[in-house]
Design goal:
Two copies of one chain form a homodimer. With 237 residues, chain A is of the alpha+beta class. The first copy, chain A, is 42% helix and 22% strand. Chain A has eight helices and eleven strands. Chain A has a four-stranded antiparallel beta sheet. In chain A, strands 2-7-4-5 form a four-stranded antiparallel beta sheet. The structure holds a DNA duplex (30 and 30 nucleotides).
DNA sequence: CGATATCTTGAGGAATCTCAATACTAGTGG
DNA sequence: CCACTAGTATTGAGATTCCTCAAGATATCG
């Protein structure tokens, strides 16, 4: 049924690889059509700012390619990255009038953009979509709580181990190998995500490498050698 | 309209003070009736465990009196409290098959309990309720991101200052004074919430007291003396 | 009023941060 | 194709914050 609907799609969604990973996968037929009518494709180069914390939140986004980071700042410049988003992730949940964080492109990215107001309207008419977004918000909430445990109670090495396992899981969900994947973000971004400095992250990588948990064959590539042992180190249960 | 509906209520909800603060406030008439049919009132004494992390998640709850803490543990016993819940808060969002944290009563508590399965069923029929829960999940998500910033990047004193302001806000929302309120939880719980030790929390309290930001007139009572200055200290923007 | 738990304070230690130097990587222009 | 440059990552040494352990003070409850 859904395959049929997709086969007959017009426009950019016709062969969008993100579809099965994202909220639009929950819609079909006429509902999907109404959804896509509200949509605009946009893209940004690595380093670009999609929006700034505090700006009026006119848009929400669906990531179809690349990686984005969500950044919160303290007045003196300390930063916390609250999440990395990639293919299939939805961006803009949980905002009132204005964005509660900035969003920056880590790599070149492509997104589907929606006017928040119009999507809200559609939400009221499509309970399926609302349900799907609620599910996602719930999952994100659980992930946020895991991250609180990490930030509040884990050591530097445990944090990095947890991060690598989470990224491995993401790679797997996106159809890649679970034990070898690209890390598109810089050490500094990882540090700001894990509540550490880039130096401490670097030392943790070195230690994990030295002790045979992982190897870094080249560039941004990570290979996980002993996933179970790494999981134990990370405090998985 | 809603007042009328409430006046004609039967049973325990008739004069529930939590109603305007919680999700049930979004329902009226027949919808509300169907909602309450699924409901059971339960209560626990301070210190009791409502459920444990990992247990099958058969129930969700709505807090009508008292304070609850959500606890996540690492295998070696380190703990992180991911939130304190009080009147009007909803408990059980974001769980799959099993609870992703334990819940313990900080004070004596009263709650409305729902079988998750049956509430899920009702959710599909009452978009209003679903919308209301989605709103709450969104707000919680934003709060979780603030907490990540706190845990990842704030100093001990900044964390305690932020915590006190958040509690002041909660007291105010519940109809109390914003500059004087009870802290029902122990220093140790505050520490586990802020990613610190109880000693460090204690020292931060002492420092805030010494510098005139707050006073602790007696017992669990906190008085905020210089809210703006405290906000600046906490990194409010 | 006494017993017990909680909170506060103090001193020393450990993990992480800061600052600085060196090594690596990728992209650029010769 | 290779050297150069700019940015990023790694490593090292010392400083700082917070933690650990221990004692004393305060609050709570029977």
């Amino acid at each position: 049924l859904r395959l049929f609907a997709r086969d007959t799609l017009m426009g950019p969604c016709a062969k969008c690889g993100a579809r099965d990973l994202s909220i639009c996968g929950s819609l079909s037929g006429d509902d999907f059509h109404r959804f896509t009518e509200l949509m605009h494709e946009v893209s940004f180069h690595a380093g670009a700012t999609l929006f700034l914390e505090g700006e009026p939140a006119y848009h929400v986004f669906n990531v179809t390619a690349g990686t984005i980071k969500l950044v919160k700042l303290l007045p003196d410049g300390r930063r916390q990255i609250t999440g990395f988003l990639s293919v299939g992730d939805f961006l803009g949940l949980g905002h009132d009038k204005s964005y509660s964080y900035s969003a920056e492109a880590v790599t070149d990215v492509r997104l589907c953009r929606f006017a928040r107001e119009r999507l809200d309207g559609l939400l009221d008419e499509l309970p399926t979509l609302q349900h799907c977004l609620f599910e996602r918000a719930s999952k994100e909430l659980a992930a946020a709580q895991d991250q609180m445990l990490l930030l509040g109670r884990k050591t530097a090495v445990e944090r990095v181990a947890s991060f690598l396992l989470a990224e491995a899981g993401r790679a797997e969900r996106q159809g890649g190998a679970a034990d070898e994947f690209q890390l598109p973000m810089a050490r500094n971004d990882i540090a700001d995500y894990l509540g550490l400095t880039s130096e401490t992250v670097s030392r943790a990588f070195t230690k994990l490498k030295r002790e045979g948990y992982i190897s870094l064959p080249q560039g941004q590539l990570v290979r996980i050698q002993r996933r179970d042992a790494l999981g134990e180190l990370a405090g998985a249960r």
